[in-house]
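Hi all, posting the design record for the shared folder.

TITLE: backbone redesign
STEP: 1 of 1
STRUCTURE INPUT:
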């Protein structure tokens, strides 16, 4: 929802801790064309403006959700996995069907996730954009933020395994196409029934060798 016009009477409050909504992310890149095309294909981003040094993309009624900056002097970071900074951004679908349908669609474009995880609270597939930034596509396993928040806070399974279970997206896709209920799929996936069939890359440096 966009900001309201300035009220005639000030509502300025310098005591209350407000909770502003996350509006957009800004990506620095040397591959502006590829970034624009990739986010259009993966997340339905459309172009609201493009200039010589940047672009603004959105997939809803906001003026932009991703800003792309491509100014002179930027260099490709070949070792970004070992550097501090943002690990990933995430987009949420309303249902598991949205997530799995997108997986199947992107696979036809040879875009495959680098990791797929049932985190308990979400089912999450992680992809790499053209600059090697990790992008999480997720659906809430409970379809309700209050319920998934309660799971995170109160369920001992999450405390014991906050990462969750890696999953095989092909197994989930096949079972869902055959009519298996999303709640059942989550419980079985979180129980470790669908281990991944391809290598997992969590985009963190490898742990140091044992002493």
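Okay, here is what came back for every position:
SEQUENCE:
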């Amino acid at each position: 929802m966009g900001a309201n016009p300035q009220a005639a009477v000030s509502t300025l409050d310098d005591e209350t801790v407000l909770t502003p909504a996350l509006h957009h992310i800004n990506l620095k890149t040397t591959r502006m064309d590829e970034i624009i095309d990739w986010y259009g294909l993966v997340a339905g981003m459309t172009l609201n403006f493009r200039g010589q040094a940047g672009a603004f993309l959105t997939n809803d009624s906001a003026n932009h959700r991703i800003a792309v900056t491509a100014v002179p002097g930027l260099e490709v970071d070949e070792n970004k996995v070992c550097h501090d900074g943002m690990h990933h951004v995430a987009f949420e679908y309303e249902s598991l069907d949205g997530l799995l349908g997108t997986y199947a669609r992107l696979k036809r474009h040879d875009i495959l996730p680098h990791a797929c995880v049932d985190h308990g609270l979400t089912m999450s597939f992680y992809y790499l954009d053209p600059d090697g930034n990790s992008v999480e596509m997720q659906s809430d396993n409970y379809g309700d933020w209050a319920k998934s928040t309660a799971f995170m806070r109160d369920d001992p399974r999450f405390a014991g395994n906050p990462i969750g279970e890696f999953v095989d997206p092909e197994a989930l896709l096949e079972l869902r196409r055959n009519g298996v209920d999303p709640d059942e799929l989550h419980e079985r996936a979180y129980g470790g029934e669908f281990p991944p069939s391809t290598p997992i890359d969590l985009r963190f440096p490898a742990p140091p060798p044992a002493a």
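COMMENT: DSSP finds six helices and nine strands in the chain.
Let me know if anyone wants the other runs.
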